[in-house]
Design goal:
heterodimer, A: 182 residues, alpha/beta, Rossmann fold, 5-stranded parallel sheet, two-stranded antiparallel sheet, 4 helices, 27% helix, B: 347 residues, 4-stranded parallel sheet
Amino acid sequence: MVLSQADIDRALTRIAHEILESNKGSQDLVLLGIPRRGYPLAVRLAAKIAAADPTVDPAAIVGQLDVTMFRDDLSHQAMRPPYPTQLPRTGIDNKVVVLIDDVLYSGRTIRAALDAIIDLGRPRIVRLAVLIDRGHRELPIRADHVGKNLPTSSAEKVRVRLAETDAVDGVPVNEVVIEATA
Amino acid sequence: MRHLLSTEDLSLSDAVRILDTAEEMAAVGEREVKKLPTLRGRTVVNLFFEDSTRTRISFEAAAKRLSADVINFAAKGSSVSKGESLKDTAQTLSAMGADAVVIRHWASGAPHRLAATDWIDAAVINAGDGTHEHPTQALLDAFTMRRHWSKLAGTPSAGADLTGMRVAIAGDVLHSRVARSNVWLLRTLGAEVTLVAPPTLLPIGVEKWPCTVSYDLDETLAKGVDAMMMLRVQGERMNASFFPTTREYSRRWGFDDNRLRALDGLGLKDTIIMHPGPMNRGLEISSAAADSPRSTVLAQVRNGVSIRMAALYLLLSGDTREPAAHAGTTRFHSAENTSAHAPKESH
């Protein structure tokens, strides 16, 4: 196991404070999680930001951004069902949008997310927060906030399991593991 | 998933997947930029051997919203009027690099023929063939019904089917591909369907369809109906008389002002009135009914674009480098084959 439940929680607490620090407060913050596991991470981060700054309503700053239709590998992968995109009521125009995903790998998901954002509005700033940065970038993209840098081989698979989206035999888990692929 | 030819062999999971995908596509229509880059560089050919305005425009709008290139081909004024065969037309389109062919044809089975042969390796979408099927119309009708049904139940529509919904389809069932496609699809989704028509406008063998048949519209309404779908009287397909006069037809089988008023008296305050269009106002549906708040005619048109976007997306995305298992004979693969629901690692 690379990260335990407590490790994930500590990393998210730190990222929440980093986000507040780099934004010099909570004004104009919008957290957009990328399905599937980016969204629950965004919800957790919003709760932590609200804990640090009681003026923040966590539900009002979180959204979900589906990037399926903007991917560049649609004709090379099995069909992906799209997920809903839900923006906070305030929209994203002139906001500081923090994209949130579980694992940063090739960077292509984030490339698609940037395209998706441009079609939805014009944020003042777009930042990126990820739980794991496993390297092997194929595009000039980097994360502003990283939970853990994880050197991996591209033959390995990084699995993030979250209580909100994953369960093992019905038992919710929170962990990050590396699996070797055959 | 390779072709969309019919609703008869569409599985419940595939049907719900198309409806769910359409739900996400509908959200695009409400955005500032109503366009997705998804099918950039793909070519969709609208191959229409029969007149159509709304279906062709709907497919064109759907393809354009997904950034596909659209080529419209109408039989009138083309080589078809010089006697070119379907095979030659199809192969010409194939040579031009069509990725999907949306075909409407006066002959029942023409889309199946196109899909089952090796004339063309594009995805084939049936946009209405003869008096056989019109799957995207049935899907958009089901989508409209599901939104209404979920709203009544106060539950989200994603993932839901139409279990328990009572649907009546009235009018020219004999010539209606819309009725056929709807009967199959609504049965799959769990709705109870009643066909209402004069005996002359019911096809032979209708008793074997998975639905109830009635000759009396008022009696059907009195039993309770959640969605009332009126079919167009297809004058252009009627070379014999099927009913004495249009006046008698509209009295007995049309949704007129009296029946609209009667709905309130029957306690059916949530019943919606549907029509696939184009409407013969005053014949199968009165203007008051067509323009009433119960009418979903315009919602159906709007939902049509979302459904067709979903169909194009589901047929044209996925791994295209892989050769199809048996070109053509595979229609709509089940979800297991395309492994669509398995969450992919997408970092």
